[in-house]
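User: Earlier you gave me the apo prediction for this protein. Now I'd like the version with glutathione bound, so I can compare the two side by side. Same sequence as before, with the ligand SMILES added.
Assistant: Got it. Here's the input I'm using:
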Amino acid sequence: MTIQLYCFGESGNSYKAALALELSGLDWEPVFVDFFNGANRTPEFRAEINEMGEAPVMIDGDVKLTQSGVIQQYVTDKSGKFGGAPEDKYEVLRWVLWDNHKLSSQAGMTRFLMNFLPEAHRNPDVIGFAQGRLKGAFQVLEAHLDGREWIVGEGITNADLSCCGYLYYPEPFGFDRAEWPNIDAWLTRLSETPGWKAPYDLMPGSPADRA
Ligand SMILES: N[C@@H](CCC(=O)N[C@@H](CS)C(=O)NCC(=O)O)C(=O)O
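And here is the structure of the complex with glutathione:
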């Protein structure tokens, strides 16, 4: 049975789940969530798809899961990939949780404020504050990747597939790869993995559709 992933191209959180599914080799297909027309905020979406009003949502037969980190773990359990060595499982989880809280949440919000919010509502003080928080997260990741190819262990794990969620997008949000050489090299390494695709090539919907 084909796994369905409710997602949209601009969603870095969806990208984490889509990339895990794609690289795992599991059979999956995207289901477009029309986020920019409010699809996830309807009572129907909350009642039938996700009470949290968020993408991604994964449906595999009778199994319905939300939260990218949970979907990634499901992909690991089903495919045997990206879990890392058994002794590293808590370290992988530690980085997934850190990413969800400190990196992707800040990156997603800052990118939204700078690119998708109507210009009249873009507050420079709020954006500056968010960029400061984000810089702190980049410092943590840059230091951790010093001398390492992957965030945990010797290969790609869900830690990598989570932390990269927003870092391949072209829209500006205060992230310049040239300023972070270890992050830059790690993103290049990951993007050279066979089967890797950029967010707008992996999921339906992009800013070009609304131009
Ligand atoms: N921690 C969640 C975050 C999911 C999330 O915030 N998704 C965004 C799209 S990238 C969303 O649907 N936001 C809708 C909202 O916050 O109302 C995950 O990793 O799946």
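For your comparison, keep in mind: The chain has a mean pLDDT of 98.
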